[in-house]
Amino acid sequence: xxNNSPCPYHLVQSCFTYLATSDFHENNIRVKPDLDALGALGxxxxxxxxxxxxxxxxxxxxxVKALPGTVFNEAGVLTSCGASLLWEDGKVATFNCSFxxxxxxxxxxxxxxxTLQVQDFVIPVKEDSAAFSAGIESWFNDLVTGWKTMPxxxxxxxxxxxxxxxxxxxxxxxxxIKRNGSKLEQKWPTLSRxxxxxxxxVKVSIERGLEPVEL
Length: 215
Known about the structure:
Layout: E1 10-19, H1 22-27, H2 39-42, H3 44-55, E2 63-66, E3 71-72, E4 78-86, E5 92-98, E6 100-111, E7 114-118, E8 129-136, E9 152-157, H4 162-180, H5 187-207, E10 213-214
Parallel strand pairs: 1-5
Antiparallel strand pairs: 1-6, 2-4, 2-10, 3-4, 4-5, 6-7, 7-8, 8-9
Helix pairs in contact: 3-5
Domain GFO/IDH/MocA-like oxidoreductase: 12-116
InterPro entries: GFO_IDH_MocA-like_dom (IPR055170)
Protein name: Putative oxidoreductase
């Protein structure tokens, strides 16, 4: 029986792909089973999963299911794959990652009354800024020939690139422990572990013929 009552809608989609060169496919550690056997999933897929978890406040999904279309190289390493994630409360997410498609780094978060989109969520198009668009209660015009409510565009600038900010954060955490006797920061290992748990579940789902895997 269908439930037609209004309910919150939550969907997250992420995609990170790039077209690797023939030299990459032959020699890069990311395509060697004895060096980085997770391939595209362990490289670009990690960012997709982490972005999804960020969008849901790092709540782990109930289950993970790999999507059709998984591609392996001759050595059995993943070069393209994707998965769907499902939460207990109905949230849904999907991601795709690949070494065989044009450079794309998108994440879209869709709610009942709004949409947030970022087109360069891993490496920004411009080193000193990042952009995103937000649509709130978007709808068509009266003749349905265009949009009545346009998404707003936003740009966030920074004096330091993200790589420098990462080093600054890391060195600050170390200095705080060394100089002030602070305890080890649990945030980053916790988030990394959650990301790895989802990634491992995707791998298991692929190995089991796209079966759902409970977390």
